Amino acid sequence: MAGNPQHINPHPIPKHAPLVDPFGRKIQYVRVSVTDRCDFRCVYCMAEDMSFLPKSEVLTLEELERLSLAFINLGARKIRLTGGEPLTRRNIMSLIRRLGDQVAAGALEELTLTTNGSQLTKYAEDLAAAHIRRINVSVDSLRPERFAAITRWGKLPAVMDGIMAAKSAGLAIKLNCVALQGVNDDEYDAMIEFCGQHGFELTLIEVMPMGEIDQARSDQYLPLSTVRQRLEQKWHLTDLPDRTGGPARYVRVAETGQRVGFITPMTHNFCESCNRVRVTCTGVLYMCLGQEDAADLRTPLRASESNDAVTAAIYDAIARKPKGHDFIIDRARPAAAVSRHMSVTGG
Ligand code: SAM
Ligand code: SF4
User: Fold this and answer.
1) Atom of ligand 2 at shortest range from CA of 154
2) Is 8 within the bounds of a domain?
3) Residue 342 CA to ligand 1 centre (angstroms)
4) Can you give the pLDDT at residue 328?
5) Which of 58, 104, 113, 172 might form a disulfide with 134, Cβ 3.0–4.6 angstroms?
6) Which portions of the chain are predicted below pLDDT 50?
7) Range of the domain at 142
8) How many domains, in total, are found in the chain?
9) CA of 305 to the centre of ligand 1 (A)
10) Are 87 and 115 in contact (CB under 8 A)?
């Protein structure tokens, strides 16, 4: 029941000092992975025969809500739900509605979602009703056969229907596209055109060395510096000063009027302005996407009904947030820079 005050945080947690890390960065953005499972098996994200976590290790939706509220009370202004595929988690709308109530109440600035789009025809209206205003949808190809090859199990027509359902529901849409050498590198012009036609933003992403997959990362990796040079032969791109505290840098495409973002963790990292942390579906807090250090929040969360212990654990972890990541993709170093897959930490 979106907006109903009696559903808003029945046990208010006392306000605490905001979260500031050792480098003076204010932590205001939390990405919450609600499941490690997915209905796709994208070649750069997962191995085909992934093993997933036993359900007992995964936080319940109520626990995910408590944890999110703890972060909100520590000054988080934005929460992004991700995964795995967040919309495949059973009853996920109940969590989304409860967090959407926080937006309605002004306690949270924004609730967003990153999704592969497979379930959007079913959920688009509900998401809009739950105070979600924009979503990111991952689409690495606009060609059905290629899309199927990249996602292994995905069907482009269903995703496209979902995207259009989200557009009709009034959600702003950003397409995420991972740049893959020799796989989709002839499609970025088409993506810019498609996004221009529909009023969508586009973000191009460099592939990151996370988790073992079935092929070499160095074969997939395409630096976005190269992509940008190629795009500039067809489009007029103007750098924008827009900053989200994240790793994206934006340009305006004069011909379409739309923004295109470049996420370049490999060629250029922007860790110095990082304002975000990530929580896995088992309650592990990662202070950096590209480092192994983490804090267990599930134990303090389950230890008592009060949020004091979990709040202390969050402060403790933020005090250890590293300066940045050390991703390298290199034929001489075939091992992943971090052992966990992106689907664990949620991208
Ligand atoms: N399943 C949802 C989706 O695909 O949007 C949410 C989770 S997915 C892990 C979040 C984002 O991470 C997606 O845009 C995906 O393309 C991206 N991603 C996954 N593995 C990656 C990798 N190794 N390097 C760069 N981006 C990756
Ligand atoms: Fe699933 Fe998203 Fe990973 Fe693709 S990128 S396998 S859709 S979690």
Assistant:
1) 7
2) no
3) 6
4) 57
5) 172
6) 1-7, 10-11, 13
7) 18-177+269-345
8) 1
9) 34
10) yes
Taking the centre of ligand 2 as the mean of its atom positions, its distance from the CA of residue 346, in whole angstroms, is 9
Q: Is residue 217 part of a domain?
A: no
Q: Is residue 238 part of a domain?
A: no
Q: In this structure, is residue 236 part of a structural domain?
A: no
Q: For residue 10, what are its two tokens?
A: 């029945």
Q: Are β-strands 29-33 and 276-279 bridged in parallel, bridged antiparallel, or unpaired?
A: parallel
Ligand 1 within 6 A of CB of 45: yes
Paired strand residues for 110: 78
Any ligand 2 atom below 6 A from CB of 298: no
Q: What is the pLDDT of residue 333?
A: 53
68 touches ligand 2 (CB under 6 Å): no
**Top mutation candidate among 38, 175, 205 for ligand 2, by most atoms within 8 Å of CB:** 38
Predicted pLDDT at 338:
62
Q: How far apart are CA 315 and CA 312, in angstroms?
A: 5
CATH of the domain at 116: 3.20.20.70
Predicted pLDDT at 256: 97
CA distance 159 to 144: 10
